[in-house]
Each structure stands twice: as structure tokens, then as C-alpha cells.
Amino acid sequence: MKVPCCGALQAALKVCAVASLLAGVSPGFAQSSVQLYGLVDEWAGAEKLPGSERAWQVSGGGMSTSFWGLKGTEDLGGSYKAVFALESFFRAESGQYGRFTGDTFFARNAYVGIDSPYGRLIAGRLTTELFLSTILFNPFGDSYTFSPMVYHTYLGLGTFQPYITDQGSVGDSGWSNAVQYSSPGFNGLNLNAMYAMGNSAGQNSAKKWSAQLNYARGTFAATGVFQYLNFNSTPGDLTGLVTGLKSQSTAQLGMTYDLAFVKLYGQYMYTKNDQAEQGSWHVNTAQGGVAIPAGPGKVLASYAWSRDGGGLDQTRQTWAISYDYSLSPRTDIYAGYLNDHLSGQSNGNTFGAGIRSRF
């Protein structure tokens, strides 16, 4: 009888020793972490771009562009942390990486930096402040399929669409060779500033920069962002995208107000395009939208309007409506319709349904 008792005692002592060891080292593990995350979004339907033919398709990015990412932190002591993130887009319908053929592998984000009591400083490839302002203050978020504001901001100037338009922001939603500072929050306010360089000898004047002020408190949020660029991917390439384009300046304001039974969205954007010889032109853009709770989901609706001052002298009007139904905290299904009209061209429209799952 004594032997089993001693064996049990020895086993208990071993368990206690292991538990003590783990307790002693657990704070060390808590000081650093790495997380895998992302989302997959696929939809089926039809798309007809202005002045083009209809295409039936199974495609990605109905409500969000599919991506996966790794991010981590390490406690450096004294309220300082090292941070990093690597995020890559992919197309689940074909199994290929990137948003399109030839896209950078870590096109969404690829950075390393420091968090401190005085703010965050990161460097690498970074999501632009104009893109974040655009997607956070319209009810369709980052949908390149159903968001009128994304159409007017990013599916226009220099994006090789089959229809002709000189409206919208030139350049990508992310900047390479960039540095960003984000201030700590103060009574709901925070500031972000970003600068990107040409990284080429003799091209020190080639640059992109932006600044953003955010406010969020209670049911109200607002943002103001200004962006300037004179190259897209490499110094001097704006002329290759749009003939004679020298630089572009964009200012955007946005707001949301949540009344519980409806969330209101509003945006205004002014874009100024400077050409080397032909002068310049500007574009005024406005967007209004709502998100209305309905059962386990939301009804989303948005209207965007843009008008040239010079250039091709165009007017663009885009509206969309969708129902987004939550199956769980991580998965939703949706159906939507978008109508897109550019002066002088036949109407475009998109309709379809899809599913989005986060991990």
C-alpha cells in the first residue's frame, strides 16, 4: 500500500514542479505574441462596366478583398513594444496571390516599428490614410464591387478601366518605401502622418505624403485627410498612367453618426490634378449613405456623385443597395446591386450574392 502512495506523491510533486516552472516562465511568453488572421470573400453574379458588355462571374471581393496576415508584438519594457505585420491579398476563385496578376505579394501591409507612450512609428509598405478614410466612412467599407465611394475614389483615374474617366485618385491603396507616425489618442482625437520616398538616385524630390486627423467619441466619428503625390510606384511614372500628369492633391472629409435605428455616413472629396503642359483640372465628389439594422443583418445603401471642373467635363453618379446577413460573429452572407453612370457612356450595373468569413 505504501508504494502506490509514494508513487502518487511523486507524481503529484512532479505536476507541482512543472506547474511552478510554467508559472515562472509564463510572464515571458505573455510579453510577445504572433497572430494569424484574415478573411475570405467570394461572390457570384454579373458585372457590366460603363460602356462595356456584361460579364457573369465567380469572383472575390464582393464586400471585402480576401487577405491573410501575420502580426506580432514584443514587450521591450518601459511601455515600449516592437510591432510587425505582413499581409497578403489573394484570389480564392483561382488560388492566386494578389488582387491581380503582377501584384506585390505583401501588398496590403509589410512593416516593422515601435509602439511607445508617445505614439507608433512604423516603416515599410503601408495602407494609405486616404484609403482608410474612404472605407471607414461609407457603409460598404472596402468593397470594390458594391461601394460607390470606392468606385469614385479608386476605380477611375489611371486604373485601366475599359471606360474613359479622368476622375478619382491615382495610385494604390498602399505605399511602398513609407514611414508613418500615429499619435496617442487624446479625448477622442488622434493624428496620423505618412511620407514615402522614391528610393532612386537623383530622385530625392519624388515623394508622397499625407496627414490625417481622426475624432471618435460615443456615437459620432469624423476624419479629415490630405494626400499629395507625384509618383505612383516609381518616380516619374504618373505620366505613364495619365498623359502629362505631374502631381495630384486630394482632400477628403468624412463623418458617421449612429442613431441606433440607423447609422448615417457622409463624405466630401476635392481632387486637384496638375499637368506639365495642359494646365490642371479638379474634381468634386460627395457621398451619402446609411446602414439600417434589419433582423440579424443590415440594409446598406449609398449614393456618390462626382463632377469635373475642366478635364473631360464629366459627371458620374453611382448608387448601391445591399443586405448583409450575419450567420455568426465571423461569417456573413450578402446580396447587392450597384448602378454606375458616367456622362456620355452607357450605364454600368453589378448584381450578385456572396459569403465572407473571417479568421
Task: Give a summary of the structure in a few sentences.
The protein is 13% helix and 54% strand. The protein contains four helices and 18 strands.
What features would you describe in this structure?
With 359 residues, the protein is mostly beta strands. The chain has one domain (33-358): Porin, CATH 2.40.160. The protein is built from four helices and 18 strands. The chain has helices spanning 2-30, 129-136, 148-154, 238-241, and strands at 32-48, 54-60, 67-77, 80-91, 96-97, 109-116, 119-127, 174-182, 189-197, 207-217, 220-229, 245-258, 263-275, 280-294, 297-309, 315-326, 331-342, 348-358. The longest helix has 29 residues, at 2-30. The chain is globular and about 60 Å long. The model is unreliable at 1-30 (pLDDT under 50).
Provide the CATH superfamily. Answer: Porin
Determine the oligomeric state from the structure. single chain
Give the count of helical stretches: 4
Described by strand count, sense and barrel closure, the largest sheet is: 16 strands, antiparallel, barrel
Provide the CATH architecture: Beta Barrel
Provide mean pLDDT, rounded: 90
> What count of structural domains?
1
Instruction: Find the count of extended strands (DSSP E, 2+ residues).
Output: 18
**Could you give the distance between the termini?**
53 Å
